Amino acid sequence: MNMNQRSVLRDGRWRRRVLCVAWLSSALSGCALIHHDTTPYTEIAPEQINLADDIHLARDGWPAARWWTRYGDEQLDALIDQALANAPTMVIARTRVAQARSDVELVSAGTGLQVVALALLDREHVSANGFLGPFAQNEPALGLTGPWYTEGVVGLGASLNVDLWGKQRAQVAASLGVNNARLAETSAVELEISADVAQLYYGIQTTYQLIDLLNELHETAEFAVQAHEARAARGLEARTLLEEARAQQLAVERQIVSAQTQIKQFRESMRALVGAGPDGLPAIEPVALPRSQAALPPALSYELLARRPDLQAMRWYVESSFDRIDAAKAAFYPSFDIKAFFGVNALHLADLFTHASQQINLIPGLYLPIFDGGRLNANLGGAREGSNLLIEQYNQAVLNAVRDVAQTGSRLQALDAQTELQKQRIESIAFTRDSVEAHYQRGLTSRLAALQARQPVIAEQVALLELRGQMLSQEIALTKALGGGYRAAAPVELKPR
């Protein structure tokens, strides 16, 4: 090859490269343009996640995993385990996770090489006026046996989408984000169910103790009725005192009936929550109420985001929306795929599996959106607005979470103070009871007076029991507000795009 020929060859290669670059540049400049993308909203900063300085419970820190076991109650443990295994809401949550996992597999399956086996049998009458007009003739010498042919195709077809701009990767990431959100939602449902079971359980236990106190009151009221009835029969006092004592006895009996009905309602609510049948809920035996163990951590900040499964679910949904935006943007750029076929193809079945019938197709394809009637921009705009909506919902969820912790913590502080005051009040009233009891033991007063002196103490004990029940309820609510024992291994870091 002489110098001139080499020069011509180099010039030809250079011109081809220039033409390829020019063609690619014109293709990229000719694609649909982004017109309607807006600025993403800003998520709430972790520094804003804090409590007022006057809300503080100086005990232990965050709740631990299986937080309900800290009460040391085997009945409660068994009920919560049964609920987490069989509750309909748990089954629904697990099904949603399985559905999201299937969606991930479905989206991921479209990103790899697709290979299919093909087998086609076509009995065709060829049109004499179409593109295959000559084959409509019946001239065996020329290989024309028309107008009827039985065409056969057997082979393998393959296709591969080349993800140049990350559209498919973004779609897979979006589906993974939804799957992670569903997993966090399952933890949120577990927390909801365990907290509700604990609330109902201690509602039952509190009512059991209330009935015991009411039975004590009923004993004193019953003795008072008998004593006044005997005196009235002898004409020693007016019947008015007897009727007043009977009215007090009936009032206590009404309270006992109301408390027993409340226990039945609690049990039915528990049965529905656990998902148990008519005989599927075990008997709940009375136990002593545990001491309050509620506590607030020294600081919330970013820890609350990792501890609250509902917030983590919201963050994953937001992260997934960012990936959908990336996929919507990538749709504006050219897409490239490769299709291939290898097999045999013949107009006569007798020739199908011969060497001459072999067919190979290799079809690279480039697809460039130019005019789409605004479809791509509408898709991007919808993805962006959907993401902004999720960001605002997440921000509100964070504020609600801080509010829940603050309100529950302040209620616990107030109940703690009220409980201490109520204990002191009972001590003062009990002094009067003990004094009257001592007089009765010395024969200085009647048994009726001694029994009636117990009534104010029992009434105050009922008030103390109500405070302790409220404290347990608020303690469980605080555990729920702090996320229970959940903790995200790696809290999602939001990066708007």
TrEMBL record:
Similarity field: Belongs to the outer membrane factor (OMF) (TC 1.B.17) family.
Bilayer disposition of the protein: Lipid-anchor
Keywords: Lipoprotein, Membrane, Palmitate, Signal, Transmembrane, Transmembrane beta strand
Molecular function per GO: efflux transmembrane transporter activity
Keyword Lipoprotein found: yes
Any one cellular-component term (Gene Ontology): plasma membrane
Places the protein is found: Cell membrane; Membrane
Protein name: Outer membrane protein, multidrug efflux system
This protein's record includes keyword Signal: yes
Cited Pfam families: OEP
